[in-house]
């Protein structure tokens, strides 16, 4: 039975993540502070199909018109809208006739953030690398779904062995490749030339030579392509400095199972590593010192680790079908979601927090507008009431004036009648006398 640890999950900040699994499904997981920070599945894109298993995925972080590229087991690359999952373009990456896509699968995929050549606004550039070592840079015109823009650049990054991963640096000028029987090597993407190759460590004191088998790698810093961290199948983590030497500068063992995922932190010296038995830890790569393991044992092999570019959290997923969100400061589990299938990759949507802010700002503006409208309505109603009151007062005053004038006229008439009667009485008395 796998070892598991039950921990309390306090909840995570507002974020959005996309996961990819062995049945080709893409699931959108969101967590909002209003909902207590509980991560949950809000959308599911695609239909379950084992032939569409997602092998690699990449998403650019452009603020305008973001895109998501997904490489599938059947040799197709799909370009999607990461906001709603709408399919924009499909690229077939089957190059060799007579070779099944499963035998030469896509091992690495990168979607460039910037345009490498002068292109139309509705276009993108992809870097792909297959298991046999065939790499290519291809430009896709999203406006025309039938043809691609120009001939792709193609080259071979290894003479033998199998490529298992590829990574691109922050400037998108250099790329790493490595795998089983393939030493880690770096290429200049502008000229498609190899600029560095790692040298295997010497044999140990017993004369035993460790065969080359790299499983994952990453650039230590996005601003510096010279330092590279790689994980091996014999549970070693190695730091290379291409400006110093070809052999590793720092090398240490972690547990007893192969390293399956490596991710860098924003500070430029912390690395997160995950292995085949579900151990997740952070390491200071400058000294090889273990900073600590993350609380809450995963029950399956970790296949992907993603560091959020703004929030102090990382996400991990793997063969236990769980997406987990961790706090990098306390190394505590913040939230976990069971997604039913074996997971192959996780990426963060960096524009999600800004979208929430924009929505909140729009709501505030609408609320202010509605409050202003209500206030204007209230003011108009008040003015109307004042007018009604003033008119009613005027009417009352007019009625009072009319009543008073009528009363005065009646009094005058009574007085005149009395005078006339008195005069008649005086006349009659004079006649009698």
TrEMBL record:
WD repeats: 295-336
UniProt-recorded name of the protein: WD repeat-containing protein 74
Composition bias type Basic and acidic residues, residue spans: 421-433
Keyword match Repeat: yes
Top-level taxon in the UniProt lineage: Eukaryota
Record's keyword terms, sorted: Repeat, WD repeat
Chain intervals for the UniProt region annotation (Disordered): 382-433
InterPro entries (UniProt xref): WD40/YVTN_repeat-like_dom_sf, WD40_repeat_CS, WD40_repeat_dom_sf, WD40_rpt, WDR74/Nsa1
GO biological process: ribosomal large subunit biogenesis
An annotated GO cellular component: nucleolus
CDD domains according to UniProt: WDR74
Matching SUPFAM superfamilies: WD40 repeat-like (SSF50978)
Organism field: Gossypium stocksii
PANTHER family assigned to the protein according to its UniProt record, in alphabetical order: NOP SEVEN ASSOCIATED PROTEIN 1, WD REPEAT-CONTAINING PROTEIN 74
């Amino acid at each position: 039975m796998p070892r598991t640890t039950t921990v309390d999950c306090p909840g995570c900040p507002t974020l959005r993540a996309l996961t990819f699994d062995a049945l080709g499904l893409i699931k959108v997981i969101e967590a909002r502070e209003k909902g207590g920070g509980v991560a949950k599945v809000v959308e599911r894109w695609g239909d379950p199909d084992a032939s569409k298993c997602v092998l690699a995925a990449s998403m650019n972080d452009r603020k305008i018109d973001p895109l998501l590229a997904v490489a599938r087991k059947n040799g197709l690359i799909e370009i999607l809208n990461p906001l709603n999952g709408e399919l924009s373009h499909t690229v077939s990456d089957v190059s060799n006739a007579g070779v099944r896509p499963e035998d030469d699968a896509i091992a690495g995929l990168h979607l460039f953030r910037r345009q490498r050549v002068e292109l139309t606004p509705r276009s993108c550039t992809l870097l792909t690398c297959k298991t046999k070592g065939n790499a290519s840079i291809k430009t896709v015109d999203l406006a025309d779904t039938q043809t691609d823009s120009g001939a792709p650049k193609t080259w071979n990054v290894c003479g033998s062995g199998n490529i298992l991963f590829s990574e691109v640096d922050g400037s998108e000028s250099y790329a790493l490749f490595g795998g089983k029987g393939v030493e880690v090597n770096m290429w200049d993407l502008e000229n498609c030339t190899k600029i560095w190759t790692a040298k295997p460590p010497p044999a140990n004191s017993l004369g035993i030579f460790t065969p080359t088998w790299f499983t994952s790698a990453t650039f230590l810093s996005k601003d510096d392509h010279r330092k590279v961290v790689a994980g091996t199948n014999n549970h070693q983590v190695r730091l290379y400095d291409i400006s110093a030497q070809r052999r590793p500068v720092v090398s240490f063992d972690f547990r007893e199972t192969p390293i399956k995922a490596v991710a860098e932190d924003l500070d430029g010296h912390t690395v997160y590593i995950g292995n085949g038995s579900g151990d997740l830890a952070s390491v200071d790569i400058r000294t090889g010192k273990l900073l600590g393991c993350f609380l809450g044992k995963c029950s399956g092999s970790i296949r992907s680790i993603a560091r959020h570019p703004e929030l102090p959290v990382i996400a991990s997923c793997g063969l236990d079908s769980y997406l987990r969100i961790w706090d990098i400061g306390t190394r505590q589990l913040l939230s976990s979601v069971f997604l039913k299938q074996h997971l192959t990759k996780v990426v963060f949507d960096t524009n999600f927090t800004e979208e929430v802010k924009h929505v909140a700002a729009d709501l505030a503006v609408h609320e202010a507008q509605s409050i202003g409208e209500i206030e204007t309505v209230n003011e108009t109603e008040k003015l109307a009431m004042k007018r009604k009151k003033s008119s009613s007062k005027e009417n009352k005053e007019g009625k009072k004036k009319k009543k008073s004038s009528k009363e005065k006229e009646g009094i005058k008439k009574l007085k005149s009648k009395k005078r006339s009667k008195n005069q008649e009485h005086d006349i009659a008395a004079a006649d009698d006398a």
